[in-house]
């Protein structure tokens, strides 16, 4: 079971293939297995890495009283440093996209490219978004202590779909299968992770500092408040390409892996390596 020391934790990761480095960062309350299909497909030309973010999967929790997206980004920096991964392409989805944004803005010269999927910026673009991202997320913690996060998340998905009138979760059974197969998250870790995501609006982030080519992917049926961040990312990132994943919800890499992976491959060939000649180191 490969692990590497990152700050005060042992971080679990998986690696496939050889070539330029792609590092995948999963969404909240999931683990590295969210990226298995992309890792397997892209390892024909790239060295693919996926790791379990602090509090998740086989990395598990820590004694810190609170987490933040900035802490997760610092863990990512320690992960890249420990494995001597130079100038990778980062790919983050949802919370993983938040982590990737913070890292890329703080270390623009240390990455070759960026893929942001189904994610959002720190800015709260409406009152309804404030209610959903800050108030409602934090409000999940007490019922999770009683019922477990699986049942509470199902209720949240149901509520979100009733509010938006769309199937924002895509094929939710994909997420359920990953949860069933992976290690269970401790309730206290759930609380710290959710509070970190809910507090992302307090992060200062300059998108214009992210100078590397960036691919923004979002599901056709993404929750409306998240879709509103796509134009912001497109206008404020200096070199952004935007693609909609047809028929997908909030986990677009699981809902349509063929399209998602194909869009990544096209982006890497046309926008990253052709223009920069960047390469990633192997471990």
**What's the CATH superfamily, by name?**
Alpha/Beta hydrolase fold, catalytic domain
Which regions are unreliable across 5 or more consecutive residues at pLDDT < 50? 276-283
The helix/strand class is alpha/beta
Cα radius of gyration in angstroms: 17 Å
- The CATH architecture: 3-Layer(aba) Sandwich
Question: How far is the N terminus from the C terminus?
Answer: 16 Å
Fraction of residues in β-strands? 15-25%
Q: Biggest sheet: strands, sense, closure?
A: 8 strands, mixed
Spatial arrangement of strands, main beta sheet:
1-2-4-3-5-6-7-8
Q: How would you characterize this protein structure?
A:
It is a single chain. 45% of the residues lie in helices and 16% in strands. The chain is built from 12 helices and 8 strands. It has helices at residues 36-42, 69-82, 95-106, 127-139, 141-147, 149-164, 172-181, 187-198, 224-227, 229-236, 252-255, 257-276; strands spanning 3-6, 9-16, 21-25, 47-51, 89-93, 113-117, 214-219, 240-245. It has an 8-stranded mixed beta sheet, sandwiched between helices. Helix 1 packs across helix 12 (257-276) and helix 4 packs antiparallel against helix 8. The protein starts with a strand and ends in a 7-residue tail after the last helix.
